[in-house]
Recover the amino acids of this structure.
């Protein structure tokens, strides 16, 4: 795709692997924002959430700032600790 | 199988991804090209051996031509039905305008649903009354929640089996 707004996800894996960079950025921004907002809605600190998850506060902070990539299983784990249905948390990302 | 249900998510994801890929007559190579994941990663995901990031999940959904919310609902349903309470998932919410399912919260983060769906709240409540008598006799938790799927969304109607009062 010859569009300056389209970049290979992983250039080393071929020209067919493309996503719109703006879309990717929006999605990652939404994930970070929803994680933080959902935690703050419950008045839970990063440290408190980290303790529940058995992680360090840095892990939670890095997920919320995008310095760490969120795994699907961890996403469900966070939803569980925030007492949310994971589907609802995903819908929140999609609506962000 | 791990005692932690979270550990079963990759298995559930892999099963759903493979089912949809095969149903859509899509090759692993096609999914690889569309998602940006390698063939080896796709194979690993389908076998439940690879951890997938949430972002990659979205690319997989697009490669499979599925709405992420619907795919995620399928994965979570497969995960909840994986190894517990015979909650196999036979139909898809995307196939219905409205879909009512009986379920209960087994424990935090582990909501379980019956494999059957109903087309009205009344029908689901009626069946729940009968099933809860059997479940009570078997000593298992009663159904106390109806999950209402409306296309990609859902809402819960919860009631106390004792007085039958429904609360949104």
């Amino acid at each position: 795709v010859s569009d300056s707004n389209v970049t290979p996800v992983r250039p080393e894996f071929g020209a067919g692997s493309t996503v719109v960079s703006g879309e990717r950025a929006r999605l990652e921004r939404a994930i970070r924002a929803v994680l933080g907002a959902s935690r703050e809605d419950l008045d839970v600190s990063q440290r408190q959430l980290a303790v529940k998850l058995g992680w360090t506060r840095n892990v939670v902070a890095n997920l919320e700032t995008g310095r760490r990539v969120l795994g699907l299983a961890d996403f469900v784990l966070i939803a569980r600790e925030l007492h949310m249905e994971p589907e609802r948390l995903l819908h929140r990302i999609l609506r962000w | 199988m791990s005692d932690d249900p979270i550990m079963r998510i990759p298995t559930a994801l892999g099963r759903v991804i493979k089912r949809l890929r095969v149903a859509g007559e899509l090759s692993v190579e096609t999914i690889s090209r569309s998602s940006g994941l390698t063939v080896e990663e796709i194979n690993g995901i389908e076998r439940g051996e690879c951890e997938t990031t949430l972002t990659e999940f979205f690319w997989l959904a697009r490669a499979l031509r599925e709405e992420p919310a619907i795919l995620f609902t399928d994965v979570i349903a497969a995960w909840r039905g994986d190894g517990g309470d015979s909650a196999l998932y036979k139909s898809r919410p995307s196939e219905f305008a409205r879909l009512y399912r009986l379920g209960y919260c087994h424990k935090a983060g582990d909501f379980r649903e019956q494999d059957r769906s109903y087309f009205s709240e009344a029908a689901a409540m009626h069946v729940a009354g009968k099933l809860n008598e059997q479940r009570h006799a078997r000593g298992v938790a009663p159904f106390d929640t109806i999950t209402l799927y409306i296309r990609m969304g859902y809402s819960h109607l919860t009631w106390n089996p004792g007085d039958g009062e429904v609360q949104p």
Notes: Residues 1-18 of chain A have pLDDT under 50 and may be disordered.
